Amino acid sequence: MEELKPFEAERRQMVEFQLRRRGIRDERVLAAMLHVPRHEFVPKKFMELAYQDRPLPIGKAETISQPYIVAAMTEAALVQPGDVVLEVGTGSGYQAAVLAWLGARVYSIERVQELAESARARLARLGYGAVEVVCGDGSEGYSAGAPYQAILVTAASPQPPPALVDQLAVGGRMVIPVGGFRLQRLQLMEKTVSGIAVRNLDSCQFVPLIGKYGWPQKSLGRENA
Ligand code: SAH
What is the number of the ligand 1 atom nearest to the C-alpha of 119? Predict the structure, then answer.
């Protein structure tokens, strides 16, 4: 009998029940999420919960997104091998690993230095050499890697940061949660020669994008008070 990899049965169940049956169709995205070991991206004490249908805390008041949302954002971005992709909000590094598995060259930017460092070490240990983790304010994008075929913003923004729209290639796609502090809607923005087309996708709940073109730092204090 073939030996199962750690958590492989849980991963298969996640893909079948949380993703495929909920409408994720792109076989490459499903394969990526079947392969990337999500349990390696959560704190040890939550390992057993890694494949549940929920976000999980990763420290510093931040979270790793629910598997379905990772899949929905990745699918909407239509990432092709060789694409240069920017992720804003590295967090655990899981979304970046899924993008790398699809063959993208990934720049991932994280504001909290401790999270950036641990994600960088984790991605290196797991062999995701195609991901470069940068520490900084991703609401200003990362001009060194631009233009990007896809930009995934995994923190909630009151509106799409203009710097990110600028750094998107013509023909590129940005997926971003836009809206209020607690509830947002995922938007897909496509840049064409004649302008930007916007489509609304699922509603969602992300932690806030804190930065120049996101929410001010002081809004965190207000929420935690
Ligand atoms: N994509 C992550 C989850 C992201 S949680 C994963 O797969 O695990 C959102 C992350 O965005 C948090 O880690 C938070 O610190 C970060 N963040 C918030 N504002 C940011 C900004 N302006 N620039 C970069 N990262 C930011």
Answer: 8
Q: How many domains does the chain have?
A: 1
What would the two tokens of residue 129 be? 């050499």
Q: Does 20 fall in a domain?
A: no
Residues 6+ apart with CB under 8 A from 172: 147, 148, 149, 150, 151, 190, 191
By most ligand atoms within 8 Å of CB, the mutation choice from 41, 101, 110 for ligand 1 is: 110
Examine residue 185 and state whether it is found in any structural domain, yes or no.
Answer: yes
Beta carbon of 62 within 6 Å of any ligand 1 atom: yes
- The answer to the question of residue 72 being in a domain is yes
Please say if the pLDDT value at position 105 is more than 80: yes
Q: Write the CATH number for 83.
A: 3.40.50.150
The predicted model scores a pTM of 0.96
Q: How much is the pLDDT for 221?
A: 63
Q: Is residue 155 part of a domain?
A: yes
Q: What is the mean pLDDT of residues 103-122?
A: 98
- pLDDT for the residue 220: 73
Instruction: Tell me if 179 CB under 6 Å of ligand 1.
Output: no
109 is in which domain, residue-wise? 66-219
Query: Which CB contacts under 8 angstroms, 24+ apart, belong to 78-82?
Result: 78/150, 78/173, 79/103, 79/104, 79/149, 79/150, 80/104, 80/149
**pLDDT, tens digit (0-9, with 9 covering 90-100), for 8-67:** 999 999 999 999 999 999 999 999 999 999 999 999 999 999 999 999 999 998 999 999
